[in-house]
Fold this protein.
Amino acid sequence: MLIALAGGLAVSMTLMALAWIMSVVSRNITLVDAFWGLVIAAAGLFYLSQAPGSAGRGTLAVTLAVIWAGRLAAHVLYRSHGRPEDRRYREIRARNEPGFWWKSLYLVFALQACLAWIVGLPLFGAVMSAGEPGLADLPGVLLFAFGLLFESVADYQLLRFQRGPRAGSGVMDQGLWRYSRHPNYFGEFCVWWGLWLIALAGGAWWTALGPALLTFFLFRVSGIALTEKDIAGRRPDYQAYIRRTATFFPRPPR
């Protein structure tokens, strides 16, 4: 069991090392966002290869994760094609020059590999439960499906806004963004707590560490906190948007 878990970390590190090499060549580390989901899915596939017995529940969870990862990678690659490095990474690069090309290996890629490995723990738990899926897995599947649809629609709506005439200084407050300032993050939250419910159906309650870590990062580190750190200064209407719109969990605007 521990060997399989360590193997998942090795897979995550290897793929992120490949992503790092690609980023050095292209001088653009935005592609780490595309690799994030692929790394988690690859670790899940490795766990399946090490399954101790019947892994119907694990196959279900990993299949859902592969679908999620494929959608996320396609979205990130399409969104970033032909565009400069993401502003977040340009700021990290500026703070760590000279020599950022090698510092990024541990500051960005190795760190993300470790985080992805922890977030993906529900896949490990589902695989190692060695059981077949049943009615107990249905809530997790439904929550996952809801989250995937929610974040997919939110990402599409934001992408369309970013390529429209208001992209420079306007505020995206239409569609799902009318009900939450971060509907894409809310969808991600639902995806991973849904996968945890599947792991829980197999008795792997302890894998809640994965979605709990993701939730912490969404709220306090790289999600809401980072996105809203200075956006009001760049978009004058954002303060009014904050006053009328829920931060995370959707609700009708005030």
